[in-house]
């Protein structure tokens, strides 16, 4: 570790040498998901406030977590999902928010506030929410599809695309057995193993980044994908239909939070409040049609956007959804379980 | 690393005077040495060290040294995946050699004014990121993609064929990406080929096949060996192409290691698998090296 720190500090030292003369006083370092905050939103914020924003991306919660836990990076704003916030709060990695500076938080629907992973939103504000559901190409799949069991049946062998995410796949199997999605115990994993053993050989494509590609190209005709990806497919072609699995689904809430090590807390809070503005939030929804938790922004959206079943599940459906809890070291085990079954 | 040995890599005779490298020589070498220390020796040492450690629920490393990661790594699942990755890499190397050798030979024997242009054509793909080129292949091979529509409109096919997301697509992607690494070193060997040697072979009664197998191949062997290594080694651990074009249903060792480091939050176990992979590479290099020594 020492060598690593030495290298890092040398690199940083050089970086400082380079920038010291021209450094503007107002900075904001954002560490966020790739393809989630539109560049144009960041530009608008810079233009309005004069804050120089630099953005770094990650492709998974764990990538961000490992960098943060190792003490690397000088970030002012991060974009973790709910179960990661839970872990970060528990290990005291986050800076408490000053709600006086977050006047626009009132725009968020109450059902997305004060969640168990962050009571009173002490450390985080919701950015976008969403779920995982089924997309069917009705030109190619004629049978009625209502559930995960309808997706993973032998007739669909070689036609299925799913998220390349072990926790997700295990979640669907747990739901199909009526088990809670956070009950990732050895006993339950043993119980769902035979189910997964039947499901996994049927799957053609694993893709978390852009599962819509395989469906658009015709290489897959049915899939289990993120709500936002489903919404884009529904907008593109009427042949795609969105199905909320009858066994249940989970709700994810991607949020914004400030790490304790942040140097520009004020700018980070200003950015949060900016994102919570209705007209800004609406623009984000246009590019990434997830479940927008911002009620004031929804008032500005078209009926077509609001009617998209993949973006906006009904309140009844949302009420039934469960939320991921952090499973810590079990992650490695489910990764092994899914890999083992894939390699069969 | 041959270091200060003669340019041809020949050993100095026993008892030849050896001069200790001067300070200037060390200074000239120092950028390379620092590079090697920082980016090869240090990371490898870290990886090996981490592979004996444990981790907590956030994925932070706990320095309790034991062998449990290796015990877990010697499970048939991981070995099977490793063997499969080696198989794909081997297949890629063989195909690259079959395609690359004639190409390199042709370029190397072409009139001199053509060589530059031909070589540049081999390098042109490097001007674009390999990810973009891989996405291009996805557009070509998909069911409603270019190739299928071409075959259907020309009447050769009636129904689109699934080409993407298959072992075929994996090997195609790997061969496409690594072919230049085979062509370039073989080209260097072919270019240096002495025409007099080939003429001598013919004069002494060898037919084309014999001249090729007994003279040309042995003379270009250094290029073949270098090309094979440059293709084989990175193909084993490559996971971007295999997941994008293979669809991820055949896990490769690179992908498995990547996932243990990220969503598995288990760097020590990923590091143990990585160390085992490193040992495979060392064995492969050592085998080629000892093979060459025997021939010399």
What is the compact description of this entry?
The complex is a heterodimer of chains A (344) and B (296). With 344 residues, chain A is an alpha/beta fold.
What does this structure look like?
The complex is a heterodimer of chains A (344) and B (296). By secondary structure, chain A is of the alpha/beta class. Chain A folds into two domains: 183 residues, D-Maltodextrin-Binding Protein, domain 2, CATH 3.40.190.10; 142 residues, Periplasmic binding protein-like II (D-Maltodextrin-Binding Protein, domain 2, 3-Layer(aba) Sandwich). Chain A has 15 helices and ten strands. In chain A, strands 4, 5, 6, 7, 8, 9 and 10 form a seven-stranded mixed beta sheet that branches. In chain A, strands 2-1-3 form a three-stranded parallel beta sheet. The two termini of chain A are 38 Å apart. Chain B has 296 residues and is mainly alpha-helical. Helices cover 71% and strands 1% of the residues of chain B. In chain B, helix 9 runs antiparallel to helix 12. The N terminus of chain B is likely disordered.
Task: Throw out a few tags for this protein.
heterodimer; A: 344 residues; alpha/beta; D-Maltodextrin-Binding Protein, domain 2; 7-stranded mixed β-sheet; 3-stranded parallel β-sheet; disordered N terminus; B: 296 residues; MetI-like fold; two-stranded antiparallel sheet; 12 helices; 1% strand
Topology:
The complex is a heterodimer of chains A (344) and B (296).
Chain A: H1 2-19, E1 27-33, H2 39-49, E2 52-58, H3 61-69, E3 77-78, H4 82-90, E4 124-137, H5 148-151, E5 160-162, H6 166-176, H7 186-199, E6 203-206, H8 212-216, E7 222-226, H9 227-236, E8 240-243, E9 250-257, H10 265-275, H11 278-287, H12 295-300, H13 303-307, H14 315-320, E10 322-323, H15 330-342
Parallel strand pairs in A: 1-2, 1-3, 5-6, 5-7, 9-10
Antiparallel strand pairs in A: 4-7, 4-8, 4-9
Chain B: H1 23-50, E1 54-55, E2 61-62, H2 68-73, H3 76-109, H4 112-123, H5 130-141, H6 146-153, H7 167-191, H8 195-203, H9 208-237, H10 240-246, H11 253-261, H12 267-295
Helix pairs in contact in B: 1-12, 3-7, 3-9, 5-10, 7-9, 7-10, 8-9, 9-12, 11-12
């Amino acid at each position: 570790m020492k060598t690593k720190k030495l290298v890092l500090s040398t690199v940083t030292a050089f970086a400082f040498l380079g920038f010291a003369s021209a450094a503007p006083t107002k900075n904001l370092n954002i560490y966020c998901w790739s393809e989630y905050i539109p560049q144009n939103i960041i530009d608008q914020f810079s233009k309005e406030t004069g804050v120089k924003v630099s953005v770094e991306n990650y492709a998974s919660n764990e990538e961000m977590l490992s960098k943060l836990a190792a003490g690397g990076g000088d970030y002012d704003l991060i974009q973790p999902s709910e179960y990661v916030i839970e872990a970060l709060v528990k290990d005291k990695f986050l800076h408490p928010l000053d709600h006086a500076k977050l006047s626009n938080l009132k725009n968020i629907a109450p059902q997305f506030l004060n969640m168990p992973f962050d009571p009173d939103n002490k450390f985080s504000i919701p950015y976008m929410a969403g779920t995982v559901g089924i997309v069917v190409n009705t030109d190619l799949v004629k049978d009625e599809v209502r559930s995960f069991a309808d997706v993973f049946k032998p007739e669909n062998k070689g036609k299925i695309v799913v998220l390349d995410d072990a926790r997700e796949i295990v979640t669907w199997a747990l739901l199909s057995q009526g088990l809670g999605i956070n009950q990732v115990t050895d006993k339950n994993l043993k119980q769902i193993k035979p189910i997964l053993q039947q499901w996994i050989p049927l799957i053609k494509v694993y893709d978390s980044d852009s599962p819509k590609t395989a469906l658009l190209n015709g290489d897959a005709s049915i899939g289990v994908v993120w709500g936002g990806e489903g919404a884009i497919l529904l907008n593109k072609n009427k042949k795609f239909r969105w199905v909320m699995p009858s066994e249940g689904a989970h709700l994810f809430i991607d949020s914004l939070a400030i790490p304790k090590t942040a140097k520009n807390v004020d700018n980070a809070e200003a950015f949060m409040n900016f994102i919570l503005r209705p007209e800004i939030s609406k623009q984000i929804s246009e590019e990434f049609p997830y479940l927008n938790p911002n009620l004031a922004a929804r008032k500005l959206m078209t009926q077509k956007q609001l009617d998209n079943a993949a973006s906006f599940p009904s309140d009844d459906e949302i009420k039934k959804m469960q939320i991921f809890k952090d499973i810590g070291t079990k992650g490695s085990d489910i990764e092994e379980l899914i890999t083992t079954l894939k390699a069969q | 690393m041959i270091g200060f040995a003669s340019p041809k890599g020949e050993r100095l005779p026993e008892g030849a005077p050896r001069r200790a490298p001067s300070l200037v020589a060390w200074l000239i070498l120092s950028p390379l040495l620092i590079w090697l220390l920082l980016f090869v020796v240090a990371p490898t040492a870290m990886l090996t060290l981490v592979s004996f450690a444990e981790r907590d629920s956030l994925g932070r490393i706990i320095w309790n040294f034991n062998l449990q990661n290796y015990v877990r790594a010697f499970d048939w699942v991981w070995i099977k995946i490793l063997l499969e990755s080696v198989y794909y890499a081997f297949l890629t190397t063989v195909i690259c050699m079959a395609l690359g050798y004639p190409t390199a030979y042709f370029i190397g024997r072409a009139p001199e004014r053509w060589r530059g242009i031909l070589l540049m054509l081999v390098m042109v793909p490097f001007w674009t990121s390999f990810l973009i080129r891989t996405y291009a292949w996805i557009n070509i091979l998909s069911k409603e993609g270019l190739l299928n529509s071409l075959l259907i409109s020309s009447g050769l096919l009636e129904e689109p064929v699934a080409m993407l997301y298959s072992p075929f697509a994996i090997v195609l992607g790997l061969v496409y990406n690594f072919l230049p690494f085979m062509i370039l070193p073989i080209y260097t060997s072919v270019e240096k080929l002495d025409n007099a040697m080939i003429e001598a072979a013919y004069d002494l009664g060898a037919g084309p096949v014999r001249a090729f197998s007994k003279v040309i191949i042995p003379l270009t062997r250094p290029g073949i060996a270098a090309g094979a290594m440059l293709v084989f080694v990175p193909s084993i651990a490559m996971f971007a192409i295999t997941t994008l074009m293979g669809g991820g249903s055949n896990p490769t060792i690179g992908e498995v290691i990547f996932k243990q480091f990220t969503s598995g939050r288990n760097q020590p176990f990923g590091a143990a698998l990585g160390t085992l992979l490193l040992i495979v590479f060392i064995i492969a290099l050592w085998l080629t090296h000892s093979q060459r020594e025997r021939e010399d």
